[in-house]
Design goal:
elongated, two-stranded antiparallel ribbon, about 450 residues, 23 helices, alpha/beta
């Protein structure tokens, strides 16, 4: 058979199928005619009226699949919600009603409200409001519950009602449900799970993380602040403000990744305790953290905006270069400044080394709160889903991870930083220190363990 003959046969086949579908739609249009309000349908569907189509024919062929109502007393979506198998079977709901197979009362009710109340009630029994609030901040409105928001709007926005159900996955793998326009979680609860339909990818939450990941650059872009930059203090203004706020002769400068006063966490608690004890030992406590947080080091040539907190009080914000210049201009700090590094995330180590140099600091304490010095993925999670134990950077195990390239760039910059200053590494546990020592080739002046807590047996009797 020639290509032209094959094409002609295919067109004839498609034409026959279209004719059969039209014939079916016309038969259904005749059957539902007593229950369809043509004037109502055309007035509420201007596109159908503009196309000059017959109301009954359009509803039978397209309208019910698009969720259009044939009359003021019949809700297509409401009827389908009470008879979900109709959508799965491709059965026109008004035909089902006209043949007496469904309840006449169900079609005549103010449908939507009643159906929605039942839907919300069922979904509320299986809904995880805490999960929803964490993932979709500000999604609810007024007195509306999270479950109601999901039923009215959330599922259409791709929201998940619980960690064990993926709205997008269910709709993607069940095109019949997607085309029916019914709430996917509601369908799963009343029919889908009994039919063996999967609520989430077999890979679980790991698949969800991996499916949303693209590149490390995209990962960083999610951290980008959208609010305007703050007013920045000049070198002179910053020096004047710092001098006015000082309470001690010397100063302990701590490098952190966020504002320890506002963000709860273990690192932040450690910084808070350190800040409290610093003044008791005759040292002002100055915390420097980036205004723009980052899941990596700041670029080497970036003059980052730093936030300054002195003895628990906000000083202001300024460029890293101005911070170094202002501090070096303060009287009495020469030989009276100490440096402790809690986290370099969001900082340029080159700028920290420059600050130390201008203040005459040759030695610094470096806390191993996590393993950021081994890899940009500070928790050592390959692609944020699987523990990796720091494989060789040239290995395939590292090559499949989105952090690989940044890890290599970071390693060389940290090596130069550890060579510039004499670094005393402080670890919260012996196990953490031994793990880090076995996998790191960074030069250190010393290493020690400073436990956060000591466990002791409780006396009995």
């Amino acid at each position: 058979m020639s290509m032209s003959e094959h094409g002609a046969k295919r067109q004839n086949f498609l034409g026959s199928m279209a004719f059969l579908k039209d014939a079916k739609a016309r038969r259904e249009a005749a059957l539902i005619a007593p229950f369809l309000d043509a004037q109502f349908y055309l007035e509420n569907n201007a596109d159908v009226a503009a196309a000059g189509l017959d109301a009954g024919y359009h509803y039978a062929k397209y309208g019910w699949r698009e969720g259009r109502d044939p009359s003021p007393s019949f809700s297509t979506s409401g009827y389908l919600s009470q008879h979900p198998r109709l959508a799965l079977e491709g059965t026109n709901p008004l035909v089902h009603f006209a043949q007496g197979a469904g309840s006449r009362d169900s079609a005549a009710e103010p449908v939507a409200d009643e159906r929605l109340r039942d839907e919300i009630a069922l979904i509320s029994e299986h809904f995880d409001p805490a999960f929803y609030a964490r993932r979709y901040r500000g999604a609810t409105a007024g007195d509306m519950s999270a479950a109601e928001y999901y039923c009215r709007t959330g599922w259409r926005e791709g929201h998940d009602p619980a960690p064990d159900f993926s709205t997008s996955y269910y709709l993607t793998t069940n095109p019949d449900i997607r085309e029916s326009g019914v709430n996917p979680f509601w369908h799963y609860l009343i029919a889908g799970r009994d039919e063996g339909r999967l609520p989430i990818h077999p890979g679980g939450w790991r698949h969800g993380v991996l499916s949303r990941q693209t590149t490390f650059e995209a990962h960083c872009a999610d951290w980008k602040r959208t609010d305007p930059e703050p007013d920045l203090l000049s070198r002179e203004a910053l020096a004047e403000r710092l001098e006015a706020m000082r309470e001690a002769q010397g100063m302990l400068i701590s490098i952190g990744h966020d504002d320890y006063r506002k963000t709860p966490g273990g690192v932040q608690l450690c910084v808070e305790i350190e800040a409290r004890d610093s003044l008791a030992h005759g040292l002002d406590y100055l915390n420097l953290h980036p205004w723009q947080p980052l899941p990596k080091l700041a670029d080497a040539d970036a003059d980052s905006i730093l936030c300054l907190v002195l003895n628990g009080r906000m000083v202001g914000t300024s460029r890293a270069s101005n911070v170094a210049a202002a501090l070096s201009s303060l009287p009495g700090l020469a030989g009276q400044t100490r440096l402790v590094i809690h986290h370099l995330s969001g900082h340029a180590p080159e700028a920290v080394a420059s600050l130390a140099g201008q203040l005459g600091v040759e030695r610094a304490h470096f806390w191993l709160h996590d393993y950021f010095t081994l890899c940009t993925s500070y928790a050592l999670q390959r692609n944020n889903v699987t523990p990796c134990s720091v494989p060789d950077a040239a290995s395939n195990a590292c090559g499949i991870c989105i952090f690989r390239e940044e890890r290599a760039r970071q390693a060389s910059r940290l090596a130069r930083f550890f060579e510039t200053l004499a670094i005393d590494v402080v670890s919260p546990s012996r196990v953490a220190l031994e793990f880090w020592e076995a996998r790191s080739d960074l030069p250190t002046a010393s290493m020690c363990v400073h436990s956060h807590v000591e466990l002791a047996p409780v006396p009995t009797g």
